[in-house]
Amino acid sequence: MENNQIGESFYENMDNKDKTISKITYKDNKIFINDSLYFIANDPIWEYKIGGYQVLDKYLKSHKGEAIDIKHFENTIKILQETIILQDKIQKIELI
To answer: Are 40 and 1 in contact (CB under 8 A)?
Structure first.
């Protein structure tokens, strides 16, 4: 998986372009929202929590049964990736 693919969406089956959030699974750096549509992410992004809630899982579960806004979800994944990168940089700052 290349970093420039993070957040990108793909269809496992091009004959099934369903955008409905129905079956949420994460495996092998892929977040499936149904049997065909998935998004590229890595473990830290998928597991990222705010206030005890796993951000992406919580979002998907709260919108289950709805059509996903692909661009919004892609951007959310990319923003979480950048957040993790910035947090790592901040943790490396040595205070005097």
So the answer is: yes
Q: How confident is the model at residue 80 (pLDDT cuts 50, 70, 90)?
A: very high
Under 8 Å between Cβ of 21 and 65:
yes
Average pLDDT on 27-36 reads 97
Q: Any alpha helices (H) in the chain, and if so which ranges?
A: 43-47, 55-62, 70-91
Contact of 25 with 53, CB cutoff 8 Å = no
Q: Which pair of tokens denotes residue 90?
A: 């901040």
Q: Return the structure tokens found at 75.
A: 């951007």
Check residue 31 and give its pLDDT: 98
Q: What is the pTM of this model?
A: 0.90
For 81, half-sphere exposure in the C-beta direction (CA atoms, 13 angstrom radius) is 16
- The answer to whether 66 and 20 have CB atoms below 8 angstroms apart is yes
Please state, in angstroms and rounded to a whole number, the distance separating the CA atoms of residues 4 and 42. 12
